[in-house]
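Entry 12.
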Amino acid sequence: MEENKTTINTIDEYILQFPSEVQVILCELRQVIKETAPEAEEKISYQMPTFYFHGNLVHFAKHKNHIGFYPTPTGIEAFKKELSVYKGAKGSVQFPMDKPLPLELIREIVKYRIDENQRKAEVKSKKK
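Predicted 3D structure (tokens):
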């Protein structure tokens, strides 16, 4: 059986598949991550836009009624209090589509994840 799903290879392709009002939100989120993590590589991983810096930094994805943001369980745990107003799970948070994204909070979480991945990479390089 042939599958109709087209393969998404870039974050641009991912964003372009949505209506323009959603594209604006996704572009805003992407821009905040890019500004905060300029050295991070953009890619698609787990069919989601992913920023990679010494390992996966954060992912995001558009769902029916929310934007999923995936900063790993440690990123969620570190900002548990700030994220408590949103639905979420161990490694994810749901930002409702009908409310503005908490861009400053996202920026802080991305900074936290950069530091975390940087420290892990330094520890690894010392072991070699």
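Annotation: The domain at 11-115 is CATH 3.90.1150.200 (Aspartate Aminotransferase, domain 1). The helical segments are 11-16, 20-36, 72-78, 80-83, 103-127.
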